[in-house]
Amino acid sequence: MLIESTAYASRWRDVAPSAKALFALAGVVAAWVARSPYALTALTAVLVLAALAGARVPLRAYAATVLPPLGFLLISCAAMLFGPDAQGDWRWSGAMLPVVVHTALRSLAMLAALSGLVLSTPMPGLLALMRRLRMPELLLDMMVLCYRMLFVLRQAWDEGVTAQSARLGYRGWRQAWRSTGLLAGQMAVQVWQRAAALQMAADARVCQGPLRFLPVVYPQARRQCMVAALAGALLVTLAVGDRL
């Protein structure tokens, strides 16, 4: 929900998704090609600034979005540095430090590229782009249904919390834990019932084809793609120059 609300509030919301995807792809390619830590750090900084200053993504929303993958990256790097030896004892492997640093910086650059894309492009724009790229229709339909169910789940959760709060269900930590557990159990039932109702409605309309939506028109898509291609070419040139 945070990602979607941030994407709708982004300054790049009206930019063609193909242009933003092209720039993100160039960032991923540049991160893969770059070799030195300085080039990877500079590339990450440019991509982060593009999201914060260019797309006007709030810093708090950006940090909240990238924090979970950063935690996963930290655990992965720690697992690479601390490992069992031939005797089964856990030891510090200092020889892996250059590899870990390079892998972490490359992952950060790719994360910055993809985060800028998802935090500035609403889900309907991403779905339209993937449909143009000939992604499987079944996968897109499942994404649409999951996207819809997220809002349904959030609405049901907010209504449940409001009802429990009106009955003093959160006046103490013990009561709050009990109310949360009851609400979680009820949510499982409600989601199952609403999913069944959605399936029944689709069957009643003999829904046998893909789900279609009105496409969003981007009048300046060609110019925006050219600008994105130029900016992406600069990123790739920076990475290629680092290898020479």
TrEMBL record:
Q: Where does it primarily localize?
A: membrane
**UniProt xrefs under InterPro entries:** ABC/ECF_trnsptr_transmembrane (IPR003339), Cobalt_transport_CbiQ (IPR052770), ECF_CbiQ (IPR012809)
Q: Does the keyword Transmembrane apply?
A: yes
Topology in the lipid bilayer: Multi-pass membrane protein
Give the superkingdom in one word.
Answer: Bacteria
Q: Where in the cell is it found?
A: Cell membrane
Query: What's the protein here called?
Result: Cobalt ECF transporter T component CbiQ
Source organism of this protein record: Duganella vulcania
